[in-house]
Design brief:
- The protein is an all-alpha fold.
- The chain has helices at 2-14, 21-44, 48-61, 72-117.
Length: 133
């Protein structure tokens, strides 16, 4: 997912320049997909402030009901901020995944220690024990 978020950020930064209309349609579709992915991940990790930000980005860039601002001078800061946010999410995702991995490692260690401490119920008892012992 990280290369895709980097690609989204790069496309936002390229969108600052004067390009054909087809590129901006492509940009809307790409950023909408990226915002949906980030929105899904932030909702799973219960990061509601980032969810709200990317919901606004999704609404602003959606290709189904496009919002036209008609002036390039309004889109330049929006594209720049959106690109920076995609890069920021890309770097913020590392600690979140590490925390999740640490939690799963701790849970597996705890489950191993529980199984090691509890004795097994099925013990084989030799009915003929020698009296010499």
């Amino acid at each position: 997912m990280k290369p895709f978020l980097n690609f989204c950020a790069l496309c936002c930064f390229i969108g600052i320049f004067r390009l054909p209309l087809e590129y901006y349609t492509f940009l809307r579709i790409l950023i909408s997909i990226g915002a949906l992915l980030v929105l899904y991940n932030t909702l799973n990790f219960k990061q509601h402030y980032l969810s709200i930000i990317f919901l606004v980005i999704l609404i602003l860039f959606n290709p189904v009901f496009p919002i036209y601002l008609y002036r390039k001078s309004l889109w330049i800061p929006i594209d720049t901020i959106t690109g920076i946010l995609f890069l920021l999410i890309n770097f913020l995702e590392k600690p979140i995944q590490k925390k999740e991995e640490e939690i799963t490692e701790e849970a597996s260690k705890q489950s191993l220690s529980i199984h090691q401490r509890s004795p097994s119920r099925d013990r084989i008892i030799n009915p003929q024990q020698s009296k010499e012992d």
